[in-house]
Design a protein that fits this description.
The structure holds two protein chains of two kinds. Chain A has 16 helices and five strands. By secondary structure, chain A is an alpha/beta fold. In chain A, helix 3 links the parallel strand 1 and strand 2. The radius of gyration of chain A is 29 Å and the shape is elongated. In chain B, helix 8 runs parallel beside helix 10, helix 9 crosses helix 15 and helix 14 packs antiparallel against helix 15. The longest helix of chain B has 35 residues. Chain B is elongated. Classes of the chains: A alpha/beta, B alpha/beta.
Chain lengths: 388, 404
């Protein structure tokens, strides 16, 4: 090994890494900070107690009952009572509330006389999560109010209570949220977002460390240590990084599935394997970019663009199959996409690894594919030219 | 007179720094990439990603254990609802689970064997639906489709039964004694792009500006190291005049981009766009200024051109969450609320969404507007300190830092 210059290359790289704080920042501090940030900010799981308002234009016994049921909803925090629709709308526009519920005038009278009054509720959908949650709370109360009156009438007509239930609601849909029955946002967002950040930083730091050699003209020496072989030069340079990233990745896995006890219904071993492959495939992606575009700024711009956009086009929140095809295709190039799919299969749904086989293959292909372009990196490394 | 002369000289310095900074921007392709290409292209790319807006027709498997006309009717109704597409009939649950594991379907509708019997007996029938939870958007689409389906069934079944029970005269009043109507404000169609883009564009404004400023700062830092602590391309002026000259150059350079992003992007893609242009442009001005001063403050950390990527890029993800767009700010801990309070784009996102999507006025957004001015003032002071520190740094000290 030593005569290939492999150990010398590793030693040289470890010296370089430890000589600058930028490496510690980009390789360790940023990914760990972002992981802690996400776990901490989404700590509550579900942002209940949405600030909301009620506009009671009836002031009757029945309208007060409705207001009380609104106040009893855990998902709502009914903190404002408004006298008019306009006043409530102003509360939305100043951001004090995310939704309001209007009880019309003559509500009680109309309800009892069968005139069918209308309960109206307004939710601000520009803030999706609180908007949706308040919608859910309002709807539950409105439906319950309606059902309550029907039941009362039917019972007074002499129907037994078990029959009235079936009349009011003949079919009940039990919707089961598999493996995340709490609809916990942290479980839904943290794994993908923290690992995508790690992948982003791996790409940036890999480009940084390689293109810096070209920028400072040390790339000639770098190749000389590896006896002129670009493969040895790259592996000896990137292996110390791989070890650090893998350690950071393991730490993040521990934060997610150990410390935060997120669902791990499958095998942790496969998650670790997927993380190791993600680390190396992200490095490989960066090697490919820096081989094609050895200008440090441009290569880092491309990796930053790809890394940041990969939060979106890999379908963490909006599904890939609903995107336009010409954008969805980019998701196939992002290593984090496959890690995400493996995470869903292994950790969340706990299905057999057989179903993830293609994702592992894809990660391995992404890992070796970029080797095709390294001849160009060698050419640039031998005659380093820095373009600012 | 000398006081006036000093004031005149100060303004002249601001003007010289301003002109010089514009020259530096225009001659640096890296900065132009951040200042022009990025704010130009990113909003388009993002909108295109989310432009399908809604998730429709998600594949679902059916396990029909009832096998009756009633259950088939239910399946037909489910298939007709906007969120559900019946992909396959399965003999049993394991078969359906297999389809789910292969990601061929994302939900399973299970109709129990006693479904029709219970309906006939006038008892409550239960139907089970299992939703994959890898994406909350799919779950939400299922829930809203199934809820509508359930309400539809109530209308039909209940009406039918009440009349068959001999209570026909009551039908009208009983099926809907109290109506309810839901109204969505701002993003009326509940589209994904309409919700996320107005916030993201504000982040793009701030982040692209920070990247550009830090790239300029890192480059200047490299020039200082190469020239014994002095940047030959900088105008010799006091820290205060330098900061104002630079910040004005960035802010004014950004005005055309801001109009494009805040006005034309929503117009082009038919996103919610109700606010008055005068009000949201006035509102965003202090954010641009605060971002410029923040960028100049962050220059303290920029040792070279490439530093900006490592220090700035990842913050976009962090700021996106601090802004409350995806996770509401009322649910954040005090620590993260205050960290968010220090970021201009956090206030920018909040205020711009309200003006743009909820048609709020500037006075209704006085809190974020004042906060932005406070941040501008605060970062002006920090930027002056940083610039003074950089100017005063001794030549030998900066030489020492130059290694490698």
């Amino acid at each position: 090994m030593a005569n290939l210059g492999f150990m010398d290359g590793m030693r040289r790289e470890i010296r370089r890494m430890s000589s600058r704080r930028m490496y510690i920042l980009g390789m360790i501090i940023v990914p760990v900070f972002v992981a802690v940030f996400f776990l901490s900010i989404l700590n509550e799981g579900l942002p209940e107690h949405v600030p909301t308002a009620v506009v009671d234009l009836d002031h009757s016994e029945m309208s007060r009952t409705v207001t009380r049921s609104l106040k009893a909803m855990q998902v709502l925090d009914l903190n404002t009572e408004c006298e008019s629709y306009d006043e409530a709308l102003r509360q939305i526009r100043t951001g004090n509330v995310f939704g309001f519920f209007v009880i019309p005038a003559n509500f009680e009278k109309d309800a009892l006389s069968g005139n069918g009054p209308t309960l109206e509720y307004y939710t601000n959908m520009t803030f999706f999560v609180p908007g949706t949650l308040s919608f859910k709370g309002f709807k539950t109360v409105a439906v319950a109010a309606s059902g309550g009156v029907v039941k009362q009438t039917l019972t007074s007509l002499g129907l037994p209570p078990e029959k009235t239930d079936a009349l009011v609601q003949p079919v009940v849909m039990d919707i089961n949220a598999l493996n995340n029955p709490w609809m916990n946002y942290a479980i839904y967002l943290c794994p993908s977002f923290t690992m995508a950040t790690l992948a982003l930083m791996i790409m940036l730091m890999t480009v940084f460390s390689i293109s810096l050699e070209i920028k400072k003209g040390t790339s000639v020496e770098w190749l000389a240590v590896a006896k002129g072989r670009i493969s040895v030069a790259l592996v000896s340079k990137l292996l110390p990084h791989t070890i650090v990233y893998f350690a950071v990745g393991l730490f993040i896995l521990w934060l997610l599935f150990g410390f935060s006890a997120f669902p791990m219904n499958g095998s942790l071993g496969w998650m670790i394997a997927a993380t190791a492959l993600l680390v190396m495939a992200s490095q490989a992606f960066a090697v490919f970019i820096v081989s094609v575009v050895p200008n440090p700024r441009l290569a880092m711009s491309i990796c930053a663009l790809f890394g940041i956009l990969s939060f979106s086009f890999t379908g963490f929140s909006f599904p890939v199959e609903s995107m336009y095809g010409y954008l969805a295709v980019f998701s196939w190039l992002a290593p984090i996409r496959y890690w995400f799919l493996i995470y869903i299969n292994e950790a969340l749904n706990g299905v057999a690894v057989y179903y993830s086989r293609l994702y592992f293959v894809a990660l391995i292909v992404l890992l070796f594919g970029p080797a095709l372009m390294t001849w160009n990196l060698k050419r640039m490394a031998l005659k380093p030219v820095y373009v600012p | 007179m000398s006081v006036f002369k000093k004031i005149y000289a100060w303004f002249a310095n601001v003007g010289r720094v301003f002109a010089n900074e514009l020259r530096l921007i225009i001659h640096d392709p890296g900065v132009l990439l951040f200042f022009i290409a990025l704010p130009f292209a990113y909003p388009v790319v993002y909108t295109l990603i989310y432009n399908p807006e809604l998730v429709r027709k998600i594949p679902v498997a059916v396990v029909d254990q009832s096998m009756t006309p009633e259950s088939r009717l239910l399946v037909r109704k489910a298939d007709a609802s906007p969120g559900i597409d019946i992909y396959a009939y399965c003999a049993d649950m394991p078969e359906a689970r297999n389809l789910m594991a292969e990601k061929k379907v994302f939900g399973v509708l299970q109709i129990p064997s006693d479904y029709a019997k219970k309906l006939a007996l006038g008892e409550q029938a239960h139907v089970e639906f299992y939703s994959d939870m890898s994406l909350l958007l799919r779950y939400r689409t299922f829930v809203s489709s199934l809820t509508d389906l359930q309400i539809e069934l109530i209308g039909e079944e209940t009406g039918e039964k009440i009349s068959s029970a001999g209570l026909g005269s009551l039908t009208g009043g009983l099926t809907s004694p109290i109506n309810s109507s839901s109204n969505f404000l701002g993003d009326t169609e509940q589209g994904f792009a309409s919700f996320v883009i107005p916030g993201i564009v504000i982040l793009i404004l701030q982040q692209s500006m920070l990247l550009g400023i830090c790239l300029l700062g890192g480059t200047s830092s490299e020039r200082r190291r190469a020239n014994g602590g002095i940047d030959p391309k900088k105008v010799n002026a006091g820290a205060c005049a330098t900061v104002w000259g630079q910040a004005l150059a960035y802010t004014i350079f950004y005005i055309p981009m801001t109009v494009y992003i805040l006005h034309f992007i929503p117009e082009m893609f038919n996103l919610p766009h109700y606010g008055s242009p005068v009000e949201y442009l006035l509102f965003i001005f202090p954010m641009l200024l605060a971002s410029a001063f923040l960028g100049l403050t962050l220059n303290a950390l920029m040792k070279e051109r490439e530093s900006a990527f490592i220090i700035i890029v990842f913050t976009s993800v962090v700021f996106l969450f601090l802004s409350g767009l995806t996770w509401p700010r009322y649910a954040m801990s005090t620590l993260w609320t205050w960290v968010g309070n220090c970021v201009p784009a956090v206030w920018g996102v909040e205020g711009f969404i309200r003006i743009n999507s909820n048609a709020a006025s500037l006075p209704e957004n006085s809190v974020p507007f004042m906060a932005l001015w406070c941040l501008a003032a605060f970062y002006l002071i920090t930027a002056i300190f940083v610039t003074r520190y950089i100017n005063n740094k001794s030549i030998s000290e900066s030489k020492k830092a130059w290694q490698e």
